[in-house]
Design a protein that fits this description.
three-stranded antiparallel β-sheet, 4 domains, DNA polymerase, domain 1, single chain, 22 helices, hpI Integrase, Chain A, mainly alpha
Length: 520
């Protein structure tokens, strides 16, 4: 119903027909092909609604409310839309207004997710300013913002400094998401952050393994049962803190099966991942039993006639308050235990357990118990400890390298036959010793004779032969027939070559090889 034509100067003209033989045109000016096609599609929807006498599609209605005065005037002149009086040119949307509207319209975001959005918004506004029009932010500006984050984006007491690599990567990811929505909403033509590479969020330098000895010291320093539960739930059950630790209720504990159903708020928006079932790990079980007894006793004192309400949280409301920073309190407990607080206080407790579980369980079982994916487990949780390196070092300690491989030495002493190689000159082939074999008719070949003479001369030169050398000497010295001697000595040599070579001292072997080369 509509078509586009492009002039040599880059401007577009839109042609359409509402009735037969009624061809009309609108000059929409210079723009990208993508934007021109978008206008064409909306005009086609307007024409279709006029022809069918139906209401305009809501998407096109929204588009009409956002277009500028010049284009609207052209559509009115072409009798596509009704005149609405003078229309002012719409001001471009600015960064601050857009980001606030985006966060507001995202619906029900989790508290931590909303905080991440707000932090990225603040980093964008700190560099560009809240009044910066979105259409004026270019790909070069996006790269300058990345450099700003790396060098002086974070204000500290000592002055401006750069953010950590993981923070930079997350900020770039969020900025790309914000502006992708602006492209989908037809606010801007292209995303300036598409080619900005924020790097990886993996930071192995912040990993720390909490040993059992360290865990015992922290456990003893915990001020009460509640904090002992929080610590053990992270270190020995792999729960996220605070989201999962504070969400556990007594109704989630199955005493008969000794299992805990953990609500996973982080993955609740993924079907089938709202909860995960974990065993009641042994270090945690006695603490839960003690806490359950206390909860029942307290409930009985308050309401003796009422049964215990299992739909209550295990961790008391005094610790669940939003103004209580669990990480800050845990660091105080760690210092009280005589230790230096480690990075990512609660995350490394989960990481320590997952690394231990990987020693004896398939990775599929481990990630199901911890509640992450294989990629996340390997990138952010799996740790290589000194004990792992020591165990890997001794993996093949039983391999014996003290005895040389005689078969390899034999191959080096007797090069491959002519049939096993296609390279080498004619002289090289002549120098190669022929394969020793016994003539089936009882006559020794030249090769057999040479081998016999080599062994015989060597054994005779040895004034005091021993081992296989003496045995060959004994086998060959009493034989009168040269053919018989050739056959017997060569046959013996073939069947006992390995023992013969092993019995020689280095000097004897060198002597034998010299004789062999001379005779061969």
């Amino acid at each position: 119903m509509a078509s586009l034509t492009r002039s040599p100067d880059g401007s577009y003209r839109l042609l359409f027909s509402i009735e037969a033989n009624d061809r009309r045109g609108i000059r929409i000016g210079r723009m990208t092909e993508k934007k021109a096609i978008d206008i064409k599609e909306h005009v086609e929807e307007i024409v279709r609604s006029i022809q069918n006498g139906q209401a305009i599609d809501p998407t096109t209605t929204h588009w009409l409310s956002r277009i500028g005065g010049k284009l609207r005037k052209k559509l009115e002149t072409a009798k596509l839309i009704a005149p609405t009086g003078p229309v002012k040119e719409k001001a471009p949307l600015v960064l601050g207004e857009f980001l606030n509207a985006y966060i507001r319209d995202c619906g029900e975001l989790k508290t931590n997710t909303r905080e991440v959005y707000i932090q990225c918004r603040d980093r964008l506004i700190a560099f560009f300013g809240k009044g910066k029009p979105l259409t004026e932010i270019t790909a070069a500006d996006a790269k300058r913002w990345l450099s700003y984050l790396k060098t002086k984006g974070k204000a500290t007491k000592d002055g401006a400094t750069g953010y950590k690599q993981a923070t930079i990567a997350k900020s770039v990811q969020m900025a790309r998401q914000f502006f992708a929505f602006a492209v989908d909403d037809k606010i801007i033509a292209e995303n300036p952050f598409v080619k900005v590479k924020g790097g990886t969020m993996v930071n192995k330098s912040r990993q720390f393994f909490v040993t059992l000895d360290m865990a015992k010291r922290v456990y003893d320093a915990c001020p009460n049962l509640q904090w002992r539960l929080i610590f053990c739930a992270c270190r020995f059950a792999g729960l996220r803190c605070p989201s999962e630790v504070l969400a556990i209720k007594w109704c989630h504990v199955d005493w008969e099966r000794e299992e805990i159903t953990v609500p996973v708020s982080k993955l609740a928006h993924h079907a089938g991942k709202e909860v995960r079932v974990i065993p009641m790990f042994e270090p945690l079980k006695p603490l839960l039993e003690e806490a359950y007894k206390e909860a029942c006793d307290t409930a009985y004192e308050l309401a003796p006639d009422l049964p215990f309400e299992k739909d209550t949280y295990i961790i008391l409301p005094t610790i669940k308050r939003r103004d209580v920073n669990l990480s800050t309190h845990m660091k105080r407990i760690i210092r009280k235990a005589g230790l230096t607080p480690w990075p990512r206080t609660f995350n490394n407790l989960r990481s320590s357990l997952e690394s231990e579980l990987m020693e004896d369980n398939p990775i599929s079982v481990v990630v199901a118990l911890i509640g992450n994916s294989v990629k996340v487990a390997l990138d952010h949780y799996a740790q290589v400890r000194d004990t792992d390196r020591a165990r890997a070092k001794m993996k093949n300690s039983g391999f014996d390298i003290s005895t040389p491989n005689v078969s390899v030495a034999k191959m080096a002493h007797f090069p491959p036959s002519e049939s096993s190689t296609n390279s080498g000159t004619e002289n090289e082939l002549k120098e190669k010793p022929k394969e020793m074999s016994v003539n089936p008719h009882g006559n020794a070949s030249d090769t057999q004779s040479a081998a016999r003479m080599s062994v015989k001369k060597y054994t005779q030169k040895d004034s005091n032969p021993t081992g296989a050398t003496a045995q060959i000497y004994e086998e060959t010295s009493g034989i009168q027939s040269e053919t018989e001697a050739d056959t017997k000595s060569v046959a013996f040599l073939e069947s006992n070559m390995r023992e013969f070579l092993e019995s020689l001292t280095p000097d004897q072997r060198a002597h034998y090889e010299a004789l062999h080369r001379k005779e061969g």
